[in-house]
TrEMBL record, chains A, B:
GO MF, one annotated term: NADP binding
Species name: Actinoallomurus iriomotensis
Gene: proA
Catalytic activity: L-glutamate 5-semialdehyde + phosphate + NADP(+) = L-glutamyl 5-phosphate + NADPH + H(+)
UniProt-recorded name of the protein: Gamma-glutamyl phosphate reductase
Pathway the protein contributes to: Amino-acid biosynthesis; L-proline biosynthesis; L-glutamate 5-semialdehyde from L-glutamate: step 2/2
Domain Aldehyde dehydrogenase: 3-281
Location in the cell: Cytoplasm
Keywords from the named record: Amino-acid biosynthesis, Cytoplasm, NADP, Oxidoreductase, Proline biosynthesis
Cellular component, GO annotation: cytoplasm
E.C. code: 1.2.1.41
GO biological process, one term: L-proline biosynthetic process
UniProt-listed Pfam families: Aldedh (PF00171)
Family designation: Belongs to the gamma-glutamyl phosphate reductase family.
Job description of the protein: Catalyzes the NADPH-dependent reduction of L-glutamate 5-phosphate into L-glutamate 5-semialdehyde and phosphate. The product spontaneously undergoes cyclization to form 1-pyrroline-5-carboxylate.
Amino acid sequence: MTTQEQVLDVARRARQAAAELAPLPRATKDAALHAIADALLARSAEIVEANAGDVARAREAGTSEYMIDRLSLSTERVEKIAAAVRHVASLPDPVGESVRGYTLPNGLELRQIRVPLGVVGIIYEGRPNVTVDAAALTLKSGNAVLLRGSSSAYDSNVALVEVMRSALTDVPADAVQLVPGRDRDSVKYLMRARGLVDVLIPRGGASLINSVVEESTVPVIETGVGNCHVYVDADADLGMAVDILVNAKTQRPSVCNAAETVLVHRDIAADFLPRALEALRGKGVTVHGDEAVRAYGDDVVAATEEDWSNEYLSLDLAAAVVGSLEDAVAHIRRYGSAHTEAIVTTSQSAARRFVALVDSAAVMVNASTRFTDGEEFGFGAEIGISTQKLHARGPMGLPELTSTKYVVTGEGHLKGA
Amino acid sequence: MTTQEQVLDVARRARQAAAELAPLPRATKDAALHAIADALLARSAEIVEANAGDVARAREAGTSEYMIDRLSLSTERVEKIAAAVRHVASLPDPVGESVRGYTLPNGLELRQIRVPLGVVGIIYEGRPNVTVDAAALTLKSGNAVLLRGSSSAYDSNVALVEVMRSALTDVPADAVQLVPGRDRDSVKYLMRARGLVDVLIPRGGASLINSVVEESTVPVIETGVGNCHVYVDADADLGMAVDILVNAKTQRPSVCNAAETVLVHRDIAADFLPRALEALRGKGVTVHGDEAVRAYGDDVVAATEEDWSNEYLSLDLAAAVVGSLEDAVAHIRRYGSAHTEAIVTTSQSAARRFVALVDSAAVMVNASTRFTDGEEFGFGAEIGISTQKLHARGPMGLPELTSTKYVVTGEGHLKGA
């Protein structure tokens, strides 16, 4: 079979599996998740062995230690992955939840209930734990999944998917499938499998996400690019502002909800910037500032136009002084990625204006941008963070992996003229 | 300016208007809607005159009387359109509605609130009333709208949009804009205006909708193609089944929620089909049947493979006998458009199975397919009927024209390790 035929074949089998999976009760799905966790533990040695091959090849290819760390599995890591699967089993089943329900004046009973999306395709980075996380979340929400991980983790993913499928008995094994092929072509065919695949969720870098958005005829949920801002208002508690900025920038710089730009109201710039720059310096942060910021530190690098749009994912921070809250909002609208923005202020009116005017998935008032996360938001788990406006926005949990269906019950109701 | 520049220009102005419109309170938006209704009434003569030109050109081009009727405006019709705008003003404002809200264990207060989508593009058929309906619904939900109606109604739409814009004072006039140009190119540029337009809603025939879905990089909500089925179960009340089938097929054959296929359980075929065929004959319906159906009527036309997929929108009906409820579901999955399917049955178990297994936007139990409609469902108004699974499914009212935003309020909360 060609790559295209192989991709269409797994997609067709996923579609059939999705139809069988959709009406299954919670108990069957939870039992399948526990069986998956058991199998992962029982066969963790062969998973770790397959992973060792991927890691060796990555090292040979000169991959950074940071990426190698994300790629690597150990017995302890497999145990954590299995525990995460059991955690998903413990979460409420979104399928069947009644979203709306009432009786119409003519006596028709209307209910809007959650149903699975169907077949979900996930395109993701070289982190084998995502293979299992994504499979668990889609299975729990009654969806079949097509997993297309990074080719750097291919052997790990083959092993993980084989182990998961071997554990499925009352759930069709084709509900969990790896998209075959290491090359980029398989992504292309997945993007054109409209009618077989209901939604694609690309995770990872901006270039992957943009290419999927541009080329896919299957509906896409964009995730994860975060050029997050902290705005320090004229009425900020400056100590709190320094703490929030340092936390948002440095607590884990490589993730999408880390801050990349600070915007400082000019009325407090002279008080705030010396303290902030000192604290950032202490954490090893390189600040890329506009002219006004550079007046407060010799070590501030001159910011270029690109710095304002950059998602550094490193210990770099862009910094600018703004004339007003409205100027800060205009800057965010122009350069931001609509992920998460924070305001630090003691003014109720400034907080309300910022919340109303900023058009992003999450707006933090006196809190670190790092809190935009499915676990932090109390969703129990997360399949990604949507930065688009349709269907889901912000952290996506199990309900975001469902659609709805209207069920209307009558007793021979006919439509009048 | 080229057509492309013109489309990008209106899209940019819509984006700016959307940012100004989003935070406006309900009272301002409702006042704008009443001002639009007033202006439509005051200037109805010039609207009807502009429309007369479109109608004359359509007649010259040999357009069917049915299409001419949809295109035509009169003083009375303009009055109805204005009344519909006032009705939209009376509906609740979805913007600001709290969808979720709780305090997290760490004391952060989380709220998920409805916000406008931003810029909504609507591509629609030659019905000038849609120009005003769509503008009213998008304005009420805080969105800017780009209207791209059929070129057959271009002069009518120019007049309607001019009248609506002239009525806007506290709402930016660029919140309501007609996409310039009569040719198809303007649709093409609208579909590529990603980043400026947040969603495109194509309404009309399957070919328009498919081409938008295939080519658009702007997210699309598919609407309205309805190959709706009535399944008459072995345990049906046959009198009710005949009434529902006749109502679903003939009450208004040209709309998407009219029935196009009837599937009859073989155990009651001999009792049901003679009665059904007689009733359908009385209403002038041509039945396209499989072999089993043709045994009950000499006037039943032999169905071809295409008949099962056809959205006739006329007094034609495809008919087949099936061996079981599951066979009916398989037929619907294979040939349907996932809009609306009905089951007629007295069996609770059959109803439950049909509802669970049919994967369509709406499932009717003992009711006509004709009830799938925003007004009938109690939404007050409708922008279209989504047949896709992402974002909105089934009739879309005002809440479906919104996205959400998370607002998280703390008192200096930092993320721990």
